[in-house]
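FW: tagging you since you asked about this chain on Friday. Here's the raw sequence from the shared folder, copied in full. Didn't touch anything.
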Amino acid sequence: MVKVIIVAHGCLAPALLETASNICCFEQKSVQAYSVSGRADLDKISQNIKASAQDAEVLVLADTFGGSSCNMALNCTNGMDNVKVVCGLNLNMLLAVLNNMSRLELPALAAKAVEDGKKAVFNATESVK
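HL: got it, structure written out here
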């Protein structure tokens, strides 16, 4: 099973995880959420991500490419073949990952995250006209 780590600015990561837990069932011990803010200890979060990747494949879901959360995840996992970092986190992406983390291998799960995350982004007003 792939472990999932959510890193995002402010309270977004734990809020998305809590919301997802109200929608679907998943092995919660295989998912971690970290808030990145001015008060966050990025070194400790980096160490936790590295420790999670010692014995498993890990998919890191980050909110914004180029932001602190994504940059930190990319830096601390650089060179680790068993970790993928996907950015652009949204609820649809997270649900797809949680529903498939026990069935898909890491490369396929990362691709599913990107695919389902993109599917959720469209102009809803235009789609119902």
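FW: The chain has a mean pLDDT of 93.
HL: agreed, and The beta strands are 3-9, 31-36, 58-62, 83-87.
FW: great, closing this out.
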